[in-house]
Amino acid sequence: xxxxxxxxxxxxxxxxxxxxxxxxxxxxxxxxxxxxxxxxxxxxxxxxxxxxxxxxxxxxxxxxxxxxxxxxxxxxxxxxxxxxxxxxxxxxxxxxxxxxxxxxxxxxxxxxxxxxxxxxxxxxxxxxxxxxxxxxxxxxxxxxxxxxxxxxxxxxxxxxxxxxxxxxxxxxxxxxxxxxxxxxxxxxxxxxxxxxxxxxxxxxxxxxxxxxxxxxxxxxxxxx
Length: 224
Fold this sequence. Notes:
This is SURF1-like protein. One of its GO terms (cellular component) is plasma membrane. Keywords: Cell membrane, Membrane, Transmembrane, Transmembrane helix. By secondary structure, this protein is of the alpha+beta class. Helix content is 36%, strand content 25%. The protein has helices spanning 3-44, 154-161, 194-223; strands at residues 49-50, 64-71, 76-82, 86-97, 100-110, 123-130, 167-174. The chain has a five-stranded mixed beta barrel. A hairpin with a 3-residue loop joins strand 3 and strand 4 (86-97). The longest helix has 42 residues, at 3-44. The chain starts with a helix and ends with a helix.
């Protein structure tokens, strides 16, 4: 090996090591994400419990809950788009149960449909508690004139409707409101791209190694 080959060799080995380490890190992240998603699936599908007295957004996220009470007359509409379905509105209503009032995401109403009448009498709702993180610097302010919101901002909606800062996303209701289709909590929307990232890094490592070998071969050919 000539002195001219030492620097390219070191550069190639260090580059390969970095790329392989990044790929290995993504593999570890993949295992962590799959375990987290499995835990979320198990939690979402667990047996529903009564609405706890004290709630914590971190501890009780996705907790299955069942409650009986009445819907209030007020409601908020949140613009949503579903693949292969189109645009609609999530209907967020106040729900009074056991002396408490919480928010209930009742599901999606087609954008062209009129809002159905509020159910009268007691309704038993079952769903999952959630505190969606949907608001960022690009989210428009609610259009009060047209009664349209663009994200489920639990704190702001609770203040608007005078409820606890708690949102139950409906899975089913008895009696149901057939005009509104429940959109239950699921793992959909939680990204899990770590496998593709790992393949990308490992592929780059192979390419880097091949380029290093080729460069060393060229250097060697020139010195022969």
